[in-house]
Design goal:
By secondary structure, the protein is α+β, with helices and mostly antiparallel strands. The chain is built from seven helices and three strands; from the N terminus they run αααββαααβα. It has two domains: 44 residues; 114 residues, 2-Layer Sandwich (Fusion Protein Consisting Of Minor Coat Protein, Glycine Rich Linker, Tola, And A His Tag, Chain: A, Domain 2). It has a three-stranded antiparallel beta sheet with strand order 2-1-3.
Length: 169
Amino acid sequence: MRKKKQNPEKLDEEIKQVSEFEKKELFDPNNIAALIDKSKEEFAETTKKTNKISQSQKKDLSITSLTLSEEDALKAQIFGCWSIPLGLPYNENLLVRIKLQLKPDGTVVKSEILDHARMNTPGQGFYKVLAESALRAIKMCQPLRVPTEGYERWKELQLNFDAREMLEG
């Protein structure tokens, strides 16, 4: 068996080609600028899509204008009072949106189901039962334990009760 000797000039040329390739691909300022621009475009698209998400598309119990810890405390309080009716059709939209007006002491002045028309839609009888159970939970938990300061931030809240979230645990 004879070993092939590689031409040293050819080897030098291959190394030189690889080095030139690396320089062009990795260190070309135009490529880096293009990648940064592409990243900015992708971020802008993501932001644009995120901003289009409506409140009804958000799951869970959503509350605006509260800090995360205040929001978590209110979620825990209300979910603790909520009994989900049995026999709900799991393949349906099980989200109930309720708007509340509160007094400074956490007492509910007014509660309104935002998808009220759906309650009387044929084939949506389960929704009426689900919405009424959410309203009962709010009444049972009164007065809500709300922050002692910043009444303007939470005097009006929108709560999203998502039964799937509760059922999935």
